[in-house]
Amino acid sequence: MPILMAMGNWTRISEFILISFSSLPTEIQSLLFLTFLTIYLVTLMGNSLIILVTLADPMLHSPMYFFLRNLSFLEIGFNLVIVPKMLGTLLAQDTTISFLGCATQMYFFFFFGVAECFLLATMAYDRYVAICSPLHYPVIMNQRTRAKLAAASWFPGFPVATVQTTWLFSFPFCGTNKVNHFFCDSPPVLRLVCADTALFEIYAIVGTILVVMVPCLLILCSYTHIAAAILKIPSAKGKHKAFSTCSSHLLVVSLFYISSSLTYFRPKSNNSPDSKKLLSLFYTVVTPMLNPIIYSLRNSEVKNALSRTFHRVLALRNCIP
Fold it and tell me: Which residues form a coiled coil (predicted)?
């Protein structure tokens, strides 16, 4: 299939070339492939394990672990959208991606990114109710409410991804088809457009600020009330126990928001393609791996559930003749 097809005065691009890490020596690319493959497998196994354990262990059927399970589903989806293609470019130097493939990758990148912002805010609200209204927590966060909150977290990704991806790929592309990134993110693809994109850029900036800031403000509001409630607890042991239920979520939120904000809100003069690739790697590849590790190592309930599940599996294997 030809890369470029003439169409009137424009040249219609039928596929893109992902620059990825092609400027690096082959040895470095091989090392990156092994590193990212390991991270990818750990991410899939870690998040799958979180999903299985929170489903299998009755002690983890609380709202907190229901939302954690949603987060793990989301992280698996996020990884499947980005990493397999990146591994292909490193191993087989298969840097081409079809027009439709690029649009699809961008769509699901937006969808999962927006959903994660709102899901982290929902998880903060869950911690707020648990600490500030512990006696009413089971009533407020009943099965129906948690299902509605989860749906409300996932839903905003659909309109944002649909509008932004459809609008961007409706522009004419001409000249080079080289995307200076390891996946089809909006800014590097937008540079290939040969039309006036001012209105789209305003929409993208405003949309990004709203998608990031609204959940961020909800998280800050929740934790302001949580901090006030914890400070009122008289004993140090009680304060530590209350804070420990939030520490994993706080760490996950910090990793996600710091890395994504540094990627998309830095001045253009300080935002070189290589530095953006590095920051993008952190929140698209590294963070999804760290989330299950953080929730496993810093949460005694998850560690105990993993231990119980492991012993049950061993017992079942010993019972099989």
Answer: none
What pTM does this model have? 0.88
Helix (H, G, I), strand (E, B) or coil at 16: strand
What 8-state DSSP symbol labels residue 269? G
List, for residues 82-127, the tens digit of each pLDDT value. Answer: 999 999 988 877 789 999 999 999 999 999 999 999 999 999 999 9
What burial class does residue 237 get, using C-beta atoms within 10 Å of its C-beta: 0-12 exposed, 13-18 middle, 19+ buried?
exposed
Bridging pattern class, strands 178-179 and 15-18: parallel
Classify the phi-psi angles of 57: left when phi > 0, otherwise alpha if psi is within -120 to 50, otherwise beta.
beta
Closest to 249 in 3D by CA, of 57, 80, 63? 63
Query: Residue ranges of the domains in the chain?
Result: 17-303
Helix (H, G, I), strand (E, B), or coil: what is residue 18? strand
Q: What are phi and psi of 173, to 5 degrees?
A: -110, 140
CATH superfamily, domain at 17-303: Rhodopsin 7-helix transmembrane proteins (1.20.1070.10)
Distance CA 140, CA 320 (A): 44
For the record, the structure tokens of 91 come out as 């191993």
